[in-house]
Write a structure and sequence with these properties.
By secondary structure, the chain is mainly beta. The chain has one helix and five strands.
Length: 97
């Protein structure tokens, strides 16, 4: 199901005034000292609207005990122009987790 990657980016033009933007999303991690936690998976789509959402329990349950702690580590980078190709890869390398 789907593709695995360290990051994904969405770019789009806005208008004639501001040009466009890019959102760079890194997969991150989830961890707990209180229970087993599966590797983080993401739900993403492009269509009517774009979605990139971390899902720590995408296809496996997490049984976190009362007062347990689940730590989520993700990174979103918001860029005020449309980036592609090598320029996007360089920014992704600079901001990776």
């Amino acid at each position: 199901m789907g593709t695995e990657a360290e990051w994904i980016a969405f770019s789009s033009g806005h208008d004639d005034l501001d040009g466009g933007g890019t959102v760079l999303v890194f997969s991150g991690t989830s961890q707990s000292d209180d229970c087993d936690v599966p590797p983080i998976k993401w739900f993403s789509r492009t269509g009517i609207f774009t979605v990139a959402s971390p899902s720590p329990a995408f296809d496996q349950e997490i049984h976190l005990p009362a007062n347990g702690t689940l730590k989520l580590n993700h990174r979103f980078v918001f860029i005020d122009k449309v980036l592609e190709g090598e320029e996007l890869k360089a920014i992704a390398e600079e901001h990776k987790l």
